[in-house]
Amino acid sequence: MGMYLTLAWRNIWRNKRRSWITIASIVFAVIIALFTRSMQLGSYAKMIDNVVSFYTGYVQIHSAGYWEKQTPDESFIYSDSLAWVAEQTKNTTAVTPRLESFALVSSGEHTAGAIVIGINPVSEDRITALSRKVTEGEYLTADDPGILLAEGMAKRLGVGTGDTVVLLGQGYHGVTAAGKYPVTGIVTFPSPDLNSTMSYLSLKETQFLYGAYGRVTAIAIMIDNQKHLSAVVSELKKRFDEAYEVMSWDEMLPELVQMIEADNAGGIIMLWIIYMIIGFGILGTVLMMTLERTREFGMLIAIGLKRMQLSFILFLESTMLSLIAVATGIALGIPLLVYMYYHPIVFSGRMKEVMLSYGYEPIMPFSLDPMIFCVQALAVFVVAILATIYPMVRTLRLRPVNALKTG
Length: 407
Fold this sequence. Notes:
alpha+beta
């Protein structure tokens, strides 16, 4: 084995220019694959973070069956002990109670349907940073009798801070929910949907409005890292009995999951196209290398070297070249992606406006998930090895007499 390795290593560096061209092509392929996949996974992670930090949180706890009906009748009695249990779960960073329902919001002759969310202003701000979205007026306090309206809804109703709106809906167990609220502030969301439907009251006022005293419909939870989501959900399911349902963001937002899966499938197809281009490039280089050495191969076979041994040496040469190239590609790709991770691409102009209109930050983030480096390096290495199959087969069929006539 040692002799084969020595022969393969020496053969690689007999023609340094040819070897460096092969290595450079594989290095380029590794860097392109790393860059593409890191950008794709980074954008998904940012998209999920944007969505959960705008509204849902990573995890929510409801009473069993709430998510199908989503009415105050499926609310549950909230206590500090429930919040304490959630807060003590490992990797949990913020917990907040909510009472959510729907109502008609009216001012003068104008009426609009609204999602009404009763919040604890302090703990809600830790999850959604709602206070930073207030563009007019003031943020709520725990005993605030006023309401926060989304900017689009306020325009539709023709109201501003200091004006009064009327809420009318159905409360807990069918009671009529009606009340007048001064507009404390206007909040602006990048998403048009949120901007035209959202309204916020303090939790205390919302429970009074819907006759759901002491009750909430959800406990929203943020965690420190997406990769801990499964562990957090699993632990919460152990801590909360069957009277509650613990749902992760992907269960609450299946449309977002489907969109990511569809886009991811397109990204993987693009990667396979890149792999094919890489494979043909490497095949061309290896085939050229084999053709240049046909006379040499014929002579080696003529003096007694077996075809299988010759093919094995070719395989070792390709393996060594691929290993050197993949290692170099990873070594060059790591600092590049680290730089892009901390300095993401920032969009401007029309692209910035489009991304903001969909509620996303106008940046192209990158991921540093270690699996990206492992998977892409392995994929390119396998492609490089597969590209050597045809030259090896050609060598196995080589006739010394014909080979010695070449060159």
